[in-house]
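sanity check both lines:
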Amino acid sequence: MTHRSAEDILAAVESQQIKFVDLQFTDIMGAVKSITIPAHELPAALDHGVWFDGSSIEGFARIAESDMYLVPDRSTFAMVPWLTGNDTTARFICDVFTPNDQPFIGDPRSVLKRVLAEADKMGLVFNTGPELEFFLLKPHADGSIIPPVPQDTDSYFDIPTDLIGGLRHEMTRTLEAFGITVEAMHAEVSHGQHEIDFRYSDALTTANNAVTFRVALKVMARQHGLRATFLPKPLRGMSGNGMHVHQSLVYKASGANAFADPGDPYGLSKIAQHFIAGQLAHARGMCAILAPLVNSYKRLVPGYEAPVYISWGRINRSALLRVPRAHGVESTRLELRCPDPSCNPYLAFAVMLAAGLDGIRRELPLPSPSEENLYLLENHRGNALSTLPGTLEEAVDALEDDQVIREALGPHVYERFIAAKRSEWDDYRLEVTAWELNKYLTSY
């Protein structure tokens, strides 16, 4: 992270004639919230924060304990590229504090920072690199996007034949205006599906970038008459939106990759092997955080490049955890393939790290790798492996049974997340869908 002094920030605000400042944070579900202040109020905000009512934020606080304040993270200062002229606006991502000047335990950034501090005590830094996929949809004449219609019919790595190439370039410029370094962009497998990859960094910075990414791309799509969606499975019969997360640990003292061992057949150190074992052991328990919607489990099915079996391997894209071939020792990393971009990145990285650290602390043994296609029905080994939850209800049950993941979230976030997801599942369970009517109504 790049730390900036208050003096440097205020000088930039004056020189760039910034009129407003957005103070952003996320609720437990990952939705970005914002309080806007005039630029002349920024010195006070940087000095002692800005008060707000937390009782109106999903999962934050009860009415009786609603007073909280936002403290801008100076490293996240950036111009908002689409607000210029008389609306020229800068933004900060903020930490949430209680009236007694303590980090609010319900703030997702606070949850991640707490688990990162555990890694820090072990002399380790957690780095992540998420790959967020998204669809671009064409609105109907009435402005709705139901049923969803993809903007294009391009396939994996196709050269764009319409405005999409220019739009992806514009999206890239917008992201880089926020300080997000884009490394690649391309069409994905499904029609209308795209991926823009940004640079690997420490987990907190990457989570900041991920929430900014989602907001920015939705705005850019709307400015071009389209809609961007990060819904895990918007279209039946097509691959859904994943958020594969590349992850590594480095030694705080030396910066060396703690996952690397050139003498191992997979290039993995003992720490890496225990980390994988920890994530496999807690895969079911953390799935509700990594894939948090009813719709997420329409993506996690065989045949659409999403994992189902709790396994690991190198070339096997049906496995939950993959070990990509490294260009060098320092690029040794693991790829977790079950998260999707509807998750709260702060909570996702927190539970992923907690699971891995538990494997390291307990020195959990690494199971044998799975290099075969686990989706083939005749593959008896695949049938013997444990599977990820098949529904949100099953995932929430698994979360309730996993003490390590519950403790990583903390009781406040855990209890409110569980309650929200139980309510979401009950609402879904009571819905009579178009599929049911089409399938049964005339026959029964």
Q: What stands out?
A: The longest strand covers residues 124-137. Residues 113-437 form a domain with the Creatine Kinase; Chain A, domain 2 fold (CATH 3.30.590.10). Residues 403-430 form the longest helix (28 residues). The chain has two domains: 6-104, 113-437.
